[in-house]
UniProtKB/TrEMBL annotation:
It comes from the Eukaryota. S-adenosyl-L-methionine-dependent methyltransferase that specifically methylates the N(1) position of an adenine present in helix 65 in 25S rRNA. It comes from Penicillium chrysogenum (Penicillium notatum). It holds the Pfam family Bmt2. Its EC number is 2.1.1.-. The lineage of its organism: Eukaryota, Fungi, Dikarya, Ascomycota, Pezizomycotina. This is 25S rRNA adenine-N(1) methyltransferase.
Length: 283
């Protein structure tokens, strides 16, 4: 039998997720939370590979494993716990702290700054409750009113600056995308949704949070390579912060959008490395 052809087109994020499975809203320990999230990410990656290969039997088998692991809803419950005060807090507080000097310029007589929060889990985090910010929240599986159920990669492209944003937040979102090419496409997609028109002196910005292992323990990505990728998209690093588990970046879009190719190449060797990568295509 001839081998089936693999699709070269990156999958939409919504196509990489199995159907939502209801789970019991039970309290999870920090260890159990991390285990659930890691298992979910691993299964999604394997599922994406099986889907690209056209192996429907394998996809069904992995879907059953994802169900057994609690499904998307359990993953989101774990993610919410990860944002609770006893698990490191709300990541958007870092964003607010970084742009606090600019926000002091705002007053009620001028329009609010527009923020797009991709992968939103709450309407009560720091950016959502700040009076200077008008936040549009989207997620594949809306958990509460005020969060639009939408795949960012399927969001219609803006036709005017009124549909663009001053800030885009990708907090623990890029690492959810199951394939390296899809991650590169998401970063390119962000540029299309940023506007340089702002009622205060604020450079259009991308706020990004990743698990620290994505840049510190990957065979194919480190902070230098991530910086090279974002630089060719017109970004410059304005702020950065590290904790024991996360890396926070604020990227200002100030340059020319000129994507170039970044392939998946080994930057570090070692059996304990993970395979997180970002592939960028010129087109």
């Amino acid at each position: 039998m001839a081998p089936q052809k693999r699709s070269k087109r990156p999958m939409l994020l919504s196509h990489s997720r199995p159907r939502i499975v209801k789970s019991k809203d039970a309290a999870l320990s920090a260890k159990a939370t991390r285990t659930l999230i890691r298992t979910h990410h691993r299964l999604l990656k394997v599922r994406a590979q099986a889907l690209a290969a056209g192996d429907e039997a394998r996809v069904s088998s992995i879907d059953a494993q994802i169900e057994a692991n609690g499904g998307l809803e359990s993953y989101q419950i774990a993610s919410k716990l990860g944002q609770s005060m006893d698990r490191g807090g709300d990541s958007s507080k870092v964003l607010i702290d970084w742009i606090k000097p600019q926000l002091k310029q705002w007053n009620k007589a001028i329009p609010k700054l527009r923020v797009l929060e991709v992968g939103a889990l709450s309407t009560k985090n720091a950016c959502s409750t700040h009076p200077a910010l008008d936040v549009t929240r989207i997620d594949l599986n809306s958990q509460e009113p005020g969060i639009l159920k939408q795949d960012f990669m399927e969001r219609p492209l803006p036709s005017s600056d009124d549909e663009r944003f001053n800030i885009i937040s990708l907090s623990l979102v890029l690492n959810y995308v199951p394939d390296a090419t899809g991650r590169g496409e998401m970063l390119k997609h962000c540029v299309k949704f940023l506007t340089s028109k702002c009622p205060i002196e604020l450079v259009p910005s991308l706020f990004m949070v990743l698990p620290i292992a994505c840049v510190d323990n990957s065979r194919y990505l480190n902070e230098e390579r991530l910086g090279e990728i974002l630089t060719c998209l017109g970004f410059r690093l304005a702020q950065s912060k590290r904790t024991s588990k996360l890396v926070f970046h604020l990227w200002e879009h100030t340059g020319t959008y000129a994507p170039k190719a970044f392939k998946k190449e080994e930057l570090r060797s070692g059996k304990t490395r993970n395979n997180f990568a970002v592939i960028l295509n010129k087109k």
